[in-house]
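sorry to bug you again but im stuck and you know this stuff better than me. what follows is a protein written twice so to speak, once as letters and once as structure tokens for the fold. id like you to explain what the token line says about the fold, in plain words if possible. anything you notice is useful, everything is just below.
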Amino acid sequence: MSMYNFQHSAPEFMNEGRVSDKSYVHSFGAVLVELVCGKTPRDDAVNFIANIATQFLWFRTICLNDRTIGSISVCSYAGGDKCRGKSGEIGYVLGSKYWGKGIATKAVKESVGVVFDEMRELERVEALVDVENVGSQRVLQKCGFVREGVLRKYLYIKGKSRDMVMFSVLSTDPRT
């Protein structure tokens, strides 16, 4: 299996949609937590690959010591809207015990470079972050994303309307 390697003992990216005997591909949110904790069967992980991960423009798992600890992806909400066809939205999740160790920052930096190299048609990668998720906002800023503004009551999550912060990086921006 080919991988994208970080220096030292940082995470590696496995190719999208392929599962070895040592790894599972994780979905976002609760499924990620279940997989990291070993509560989700391998069949569920394979189903995720076949039915969900393949819907992303770009999807990778974040691995440390041959164990999946998170995922990162780029999707498009353009559909048939040609006006949004040159943009993608990056999303990432990481098991909480790996927060604050620089792993998400390294994963996002590496991913943005790879995404712009592999998908030359993309001009913009954006990210939406809950206003209370200061850690994720800091990750994006360290990776060269520009904070564009707050989208008030943009998403409805867990029974509550949430403000989201919009960040973006352009293919023409200097890479950090």
The beta strands are 3-5, 12-14, 58-64, 67-75, 87-94, 124-130, 146-157, 160-170.
